[in-house]
Amino acid sequence: MDQPPRIGRYSLVRRVGAGGFATVWLARDEQLDAEVAVKILSDNWIEDEDVRRRFLAEGRFLRKVDSLYVVGVHDIGEAEDGRPFMVLTYADGGTLAERIKAGPLEIAEVVRVINQVGRGLKHLHSRGVLHRDVKPANVLFRTDPAGDRAMLSDLGLGKSLAEVSRITMPGGTPAYVAPEQVRGERLDHRADLYSLGAVAYAAFTGQAPYGVASLSAVMQIDTPPPSMATLREDIPDAIDVVVRRALEPDRDKRWPDLDSFLTALRDAHTTGEVPPGLVPAAEMPTPTAPPADVDQATALATANRSTVATKPKRSVRGRVIAGLVAVVLAAAGAYGGYELVLTRPVKVEYQNLSVEVPRDWSQKSENADGPSLLVSKNTSEWQNNNATEGVFLGISNGTTLPRTTTPPAGCQPATPDPPNLEGQSLVTFRYSCSEASVDEQFRLLDGNKVLRVQVRDDNPERRAAVLASAEYTP
Questions:
Q1: Going from the N-terminus, what domains does the chain have, and what CATH number goes with each?
Q2: What share of the chain is helix, strand, coil (3-state, %, to 5)?
Q3: Taking the CA atoms of the chain, what radius of gyration do you get in angstroms?
Q4: Which of 109, 142, 258, 400 is 20 to 30 A from 100, alpha carbon to alpha carbon?
Q5: DSSP bridge pairs for 367
Q6: For residues 464 and 460, what is the distance between their CA atoms, to the nearest angstrom?
Q7: DSSP one-letter string for 210-273
Q8: Strand 10-18 vs strand 22-29: parallel, antiparallel, or unpaired?
């Protein structure tokens, strides 16, 4: 795969992650002789001021904190083509999400990791920053001489405590977000505490606390999740009640602060005794499961996707936000909210290709040559009618990005955005058509392959969301 030799003063080694909004490279700081991660905004978002603002805001939030347990920002700059980049602590040990996927962690290991992540949150809060998107995918590990260390990352949804003291835009990841955050209420540190409890629940059991994958379903949660002992027999009763108290939907019933939760968790693990004032899990009433919008397997598959909901027109505390859920896709850094006004998207897969689409794109066509995948409202009309909503993914051999393409019938030709492709890993063409709008993206992949993704839809936010979700997994 072609790659620029360097960004700023940093020599690039290899790409470690990429998505529709940013690319992350393992790089070497030659002046300090150290490995770092360089996160750079994707070239097709260079003119989007809102995306640039969110990208730079994350860097500013991270710079406020000097903590072993928060990914550090060592430098912020601008590449030769004008794209902003930030230089981060390189985490060589993967993510907590990857470890959970392999199976529940050892109890002592979970207690250690949650305490380290909790320290990172405390450091953020002490600097006046609320994370708002604590989840397993945002917990990274860095190898130290004494073992590995958990670190919080990705403050794309981060807010200053001064900002969240007012009613703010709802958002978060459904499986891990506090109900009050979804309702757009005034937030405090207990929102992050709830999310940390949800991460602990997932690390202990291998499953997120609730089978929910949309913000509207989160607002219907009114009891703590089922006992972890129903999912894992060796979970001590004391640890179970400590974690479930952190997951109280009513924040006034949660632990009052992070110190209380972390201390109780350590004591429960060390002594095996239920903390004073708490009721053993065996004596607690069985909670009523919230109306889940998906089964547990589907919820786990989407559990690490951040979402931002449309703000209610009437700022009434606790009022249900009806029907609008937006997706912020986090793959090597995802920024910006995209409204999916229709139903929750579904993931469609074929061989190494996958993409998330609206549910009414219910027809699929597959081809092993390449391979390729077409998901649409009407696959038979795809070639003849550019107004047919859908997405096409295809793989071809190649080492360079195209500078021109052949647009669909009835669409005006487009030039790359931006036209300078030197050192870039993707390029996006946007067509203006007689009956619809079309976005087409080409991405360079490892192994001298090119991924082509074409999305047709009148909704620009939905086109962007589908485009960003498209993936090829070698």
A1: 6-89 (3.30.200.20), 96-325 (1.10.510.10), 347-460 (no CATH)
A2: 25, 25, 45
A3: 23
A4: 258
A5: 372
A6: 6
A7: S---SHHHHTT--SPPPPGGGT-TT--HHHHHHHHHHT-SSGGGS-SSHHHHHHHHHHHHHH-P
A8: antiparallel
Catalytic residue among 33, 43, 81, 133: 133
Q: What is the pLDDT along the chain (474 residues), one digit of tens a residue?
A: 345 677 878 888 888 776 557 788 888 887 878 888 888 887 777 777 777 777 777 777 677 677 888 888 888 888 887 888 888 888 888 889 999 988 879 999 999 999 999 999 998 888 778 888 899 988 999 987 777 999 988 754 444 444 433 334 445 678 898 888 888 778 888 999 999 999 999 999 998 898 776 777 888 888 889 999 999 999 999 999 999 999 999 999 999 999 999 999 999 999 988 877 665 554 444 444 444 444 433 443 444 444 444 333 333 333 222 222 222 223 333 322 222 222 357 888 888 899 999 877 888 888 887 889 999 988 888 887 878 889 999 999 888 888 878 887 778 776 565 556 666 778 888 887 766 688 888 998 887 889 999 999 887 778 888 988 898 887
pTM of the model: 0.58
- Residue 233: partners with Cβ closer than 8 Å, 6 or more residues away: none
Q: Give strand pairing partners of 339.
A: 326
Has 33 been annotated as catalytic?
Answer: no
